[in-house]
Design a protein that fits this description.
This protein has 19 helices and 14 strands. The chain has helices spanning 12-18, 26-36, 51-63, 80-93, 111-119, 128-136, 153-158, 162-169, 187-196, 226-237, 249-261, 275-287, 297-300, 320-327, 348-358, 378-383, 396-402, 443-451, 459-463; strands at 41-45, 73-76, 101-104, 123-126, 147-150, 177-182, 201-205, 214-220, 242-245, 266-269, 292-295, 310-313, 337-343, 363-364. Bound molecules: adenosine monophosphate. Adenosine monophosphate binds at residues 21, 24-25, 28, 47-53, 304, 306, 332-333.
Length: 465
């Protein structure tokens, strides 16, 4: 099949070949005909499948005729980065049909957005909070909207945006075409889909399976050796496109600084950075100025950077969905990629949940010549002390997803001496990290905290991402 097979305006064809799209991806094959026929669609697609073009092409085709200067399509996305990316795809096709697209998100001045409204745009790609502000202040009207897209709906839900989404929908005409895309389908998203979609067709690519072009490996390691292990791995990989994920914003910032100190071209991407700095990091990583992006979950979901060779989970993600999103940054558009995850004894439950989703155990790896028995020095002691896992600010649903029961059995066992105990403990290390399940710290850790009450080791740093 090629793009000629769709009932698309032929003006699309040179544009598609100019950006190197010769054949539609599976989701495009399935979704484009349905969307061109005006159907509502629920797209269950893994990241990196080409879902953006799957909705952009039919939307541009639909809007090519009809009025100008009114908002006729709204795409709601969870993050600014994703909104900018989607807007970029509209920019590849819209101008040839006299269609203008604009972004709307917080963290930047509202003035350019207001100017765009006054100038008149047909397509808005928006994050929910700022769009709702504009609507409440009557800065823009959505009364002429014909198409609504909710992208990364599971992420919108994780970020607590569903009430905003429902409020935004009240400003839209009931008669419209609606599309909802999500990599995973928590109950809340399913309920939203039932409410907002009208007799939808479901398009499913790979279900909830993890990206098939990615190979997975676990690196059991004591928490205090993670940075040393990371440095060794990065030296061995010699890759110029690696994303490292950490659990907290502070850790992303600090780890990126450490990598820089060791000569790696690294940059952080986390929610405490200004929008301008975030975009600089992302652009620098995209164009190769930076080889390593050290990111948190919130900052990095949905980001499309082609050619990422490795995703390294410096910290195990809290949920299988978070794992899915993280590793979706590699193996994109049918390239292959590798996902390495550092794990400690505390990560058993999460690993078991990921393995259940994968349907097989993940290979445990050790690095030849690495000293897994090295003791913790003073700096390592205070560097990345782990506080309790966040217990507030997350929805009960995402919490329950994180609490999958641990699987028992040999596949959870670490290589080397720890194997006999059936634990995930790194080779040579002792399991002495504080209990996460109870949210308490070991005596040793609390003593350290009281002796050195540094901002970066406070519990707050671990609860705010
Ligand atoms: P998305 O899932 O929309 O983030 O797309 C992932 C990547 O696939 C992006 O870099 C797109 O440019 C690329 N892509 C989308 N459709 C195609 C296609 N038909 N052929 C080749 N690459 C594509």
């Amino acid at each position: 099949m090629n793009f000629n097979s769709f009932a698309l305006n032929e003006k699309f064809l040179p544009l598609l070949s100019a950006i190197g799209y010769s054949v539609p991806t599976p989701i495009q094959e399935q979704a484009i005909p349905l969307l061109l026929a005006g159907r509502d669609v629920m797209g269950l697609a893994q990241t990196g499948t080409g879902k953006t073009a799957a909705f952009v092409l039919p939307i541009v085709q639909r809007l090519q005729s009809g009025s100008r200067g009114k908002v006729r399509c709204v795409v709601v996305a969870p993050t600014r980065e994703l909104a900018i990316q989607i807007h970029g795809v509209f920019e590849q096709f819209g101008p040839a049909f006299g269609l203008r697209s604009a972004t709307v998100f917080g963290g930047v001045s509202a003035q350019p957005q207001l100017q765009n409204f006054r100038r008149g745009v047909e397509i808005l790609v928006a994050c929910p909070g700022r769009l709702l502000d504009h609507l409440r202040q009557s800065n823009v009207s959505l009364a002429a909207v014909e198409v609504l897209v909710l992208d990364e709906a599971d992420h919108l839900f994780d970020m607590g945006f569903l009430p905003n989404i429902r409020a935004i929908i009240n400003y839209l005409p009931k008669q419209r075409q609606t599309m909802l895309f999500s990599a995973t389908m928590p109950d809340e998203v399913r309920h939203l889909a039932l409410d907002v979609l009208n007799h939808p067709e479901t398009v499913k690519i790979g279900g909830n399976a993890l990206v098939s072009t990615v190979s997975h490996a676990l690196y059991p390691v004591a928490a205090h050796l993670k940075t040393t292990l990371l440095l060794r791995l990065l030296e061995d990989l010699q890759s110029d496109s690696v994303i490292v994920f950490t659990r907290t914003k502070f850790r992303a910032k600090r780890l990126s600084e450490q990598l820089l100190k060791h000569g790696f071209r690294s940059t952080p991407l986390q929610g405490n950075m200004s929008q301008v700095r975030r975009q600089e990091s992302l652009d620098g990583f995209r164009c190769g100025t930076f080889h390593i992006l050290v990111a948190t979950d919130i900052a990095a979901r949905g980001i499309d950077v082609s050619g990422v060779s490795h995703v390294i989970n410096y910290d195990m993600p809290d949920t299988v969905d978070a794992y899915t999103h993280r590793i979706g940054r590699t193996g994109r558009a049918l390239h292959t990629g590798k996902a390495f995850t550092f794990c400690t004894d505390e990560d058993k439950a999460e690993i078991a949940a990921v393995e259940r989703r994968l349907g097989c155990p993940i290979e445990r790896k050790t690095l030849d010549g690495f000293d897994y028995r090295a003791r913790e020095d003073q700096q390592q002691k205070t560097e990345f002390q782990r506080g309790p896992r966040p217990s507030s600010g997350r929805s009960p649903a995402s919490r329950s997803r994180a609490q999958a029961p641990a699987r028992t059995g040999g596949s959870m066992t670490a290589p080397g001496p720890a194997r006999a105990s059936g634990a995930l403990t790194a080779p040579g290390s002792r399991a002495q990290t504080p209990s996460r399940a109870s949210g308490t710290r070991s005596t040793e850790t609390s003593q350290r905290s009281s002796l050195a009450p540094r901002r970066r080791t406070s519990a707050r740093d671990y609860s705010v991402r």
